[in-house]
Amino acid sequence: MNKLELAFFGLCSVIALLGAVVTVGAKNPIRGAMGLLSTIIGIAGLYLMLAAEFLAAIQLLVYAGAVVILFLFVIMLLGPSAQSKRDARGAVARYVGAAALLVSGLGAMVLVMRTQSGTPTALPAVPPQFGTIESIGHELFSTALVPFELSGALLLVAVIGAVAVARGKQVDPTLLPAADAKPSQAPAPNAAQTKEARS
Amino acid sequence: MTVPLEYFVIVGAALFMTGAVGFLIRRNLLVLLMSIELMLNAVNLTLVAFNRQHVGGHTGQIFTFFIIAIAAAEAAVGLAIVLAFFRLRSTVRSDDADLLRN
């Protein structure tokens, strides 16, 4: 096994796994978003090793360039309340469930590794044109044409839906006092002020 | 000889489990969405790795392409829902999403 290749694989997977752990464990959501970014960069490196140059570029463009930035925008829009306080309600059940899932997943991985025949599966040689934009585009516009067009429609619907949901209800100004009279059970002490400031 | 297929699949499985555990133990809606993204990324990595083994076609990479598109749409709609929820309850804790319970 090529030492350099193995080192690159190890580097990328360590970056990805550390980023995943940070994403899940970070108290501050901004740190979580940075962990997600590191995971995405590590996975893009693994795509490069797997001869998927086009997907590595797409991964960086769409995930690192759009999704993580969108997360950061929302976190900064929410301000300090994006970091929810911890409380102990139901914590035991959640952690027991998560531990059971973790143990069963690790057990499945160990079983799969033990049942394999000993020699790891060597990957075949990469044919020319494998994973390039030309070949993927050719396949995308021939065999996968219908899903491609449908995904365009899906993205349009998602954009319209996201705008419609995030925009909220446009309140009639004459009805504002009635809308504000509803008691809010928000735990944050400054919730009423922000609501007034927004309206 | 290149890095064997199993290594990539193991990394994908570990990433998926991290995302699944995070989805179960966290309550911040933003972190839950990020955990979903982690799981989708892990599945993508596995698909690309298996496509690398069967180099005759690009089925796995095409699937990954569509999953990336759908994940972007899901993130946009999910974050819009988080914003609408925050406007309603001034919090992003998933436990406070209990308007239909009482």
Automatic annotation (TrEMBL), chain A:
It catalyses: a quinone + NADH + 5 H(+)(in) = a quinol + NAD(+) + 4 H(+)(out). InterPro entries: NADH_UbQ/plastoQ_OxRdtase_su6, Nuo/plastoQ_OxRdtase_6_NuoJ. Its EC number is 7.1.1.-. It comes from the Bacteria. NDH-1 shuttles electrons from NADH, via FMN and iron-sulfur (Fe-S) centers, to quinones in the respiratory chain. Couples the redox reaction to proton translocation (for every two electrons transferred, four hydrogen ions are translocated across the cytoplasmic membrane), and thus conserves the redox energy in a proton gradient. Belongs to the complex I subunit 6 family. It is found in: Cell membrane. It is a multi-pass membrane protein. GO terms for molecular function: NADH dehydrogenase (quinone) (non-electrogenic) activity. Keywords: Cell membrane, Membrane, NAD, Oxidoreductase, Quinone, Transmembrane, Transmembrane helix. Pfam families: Oxidored_q3. The chain crosses the membrane at residues 6-26, 33-50, 56-79, 91-113, 144-166. Residues 176-199 are annotated as: Disordered. This is NADH-quinone oxidoreductase subunit J. Coiled coil: none annotated.
TrEMBL record, chain B:
It is an enzyme of class 7 (translocase). GO terms for molecular function: NADH dehydrogenase (quinone) (non-electrogenic) activity; quinone binding. It is a multi-pass membrane protein. Gene3D superfamilies: 1.10.287.3510. The keyword Transmembrane applies. The keyword Transport applies. It is found in: Cell membrane; Membrane. It catalyses: a quinone + NADH + 5 H(+)(in) = a quinol + NAD(+) + 4 H(+)(out). Its EC number is 7.1.1.-. Belongs to the complex I subunit 4L family. This is NADH-quinone oxidoreductase subunit K.
